[in-house]
Amino acid sequence: MALITQAEWARRQGFSKQYVGKLISQGKIRLINGMVDEDAANSVLAKQRDSHLPLRRHKNSSYTNSEGVHDLLMKMKLKNEIEKGKLLEARVNEELRELLPADKVYNAMFAKGRIIRDGILNIPDRISSLLAGIDDSAKIHEILTKEFREVLEELSRDDDL
Fold first, then answer.
1. What is the pTM of this model?
2. Which of 31, 64, 98, 154 is most exposed by smallest CB count within 10 Å?
């Protein structure tokens, strides 16, 4: 019969002093001169527990090991801070215009491509009648170059991004 304090018995079992107080108030654990008979209290707990359920608290469990919990908590906090830093960096880069939203870039590039396509496809309609009467290949080359250059310069003037 080893008599120990309620706090010591709670530490050895892995639960709070309040839970020991609850067991005492329910009459499951009896005190002897304010002390707990460890053997009797342990046998009462063993009878009370379901044998098919695992123990929730175990002395070697990483959940009750304060160093293990502290390490896990520190790792989670570190990971959280790293993710916050990445998000903040992305926001700063976006504000500095180093990064743009992908959908905005896609829409702008689509619009630019459409301008180029429409300009190039309209060249034959604009100059076919003009080229029909010209026999000089140098003159034809000059006219075509001028038309293509105009389409490309229009692209460079229109700056959506």
1. 0.34
2. 98
The pLDDT assigned to 78 comes to 93
Number of domains composing the chain: 3
Range of the domain at 119: 102-157
Q: pLDDT tens digits for 98-154?
A: 777 788 889 988 988 888 888 888 889 888 888 888 889 999 999 999 988 988 887
Q: What angle do CA 54, 56, 15 make, to 5 degrees?
A: 145
Question: What are the C-alpha distances in Å from 80 to residues 64, 69, 72, 77?
Answer: 23, 16, 12, 5
**148, 120 contact by CB (below 8 A):** yes
Q: Give the DSSP letter string of 30-87.
A: -EETTEEEHHHHHHHHHHHS-TTSPPS--TT-TTT-HHHHHHHHHHHHHHHHHHHHHH
Q: Which two tokens stand for residue 100?
A: 């743009």
SS3 5: coil
Written as six digits, the tokens of 74 are 């520190």
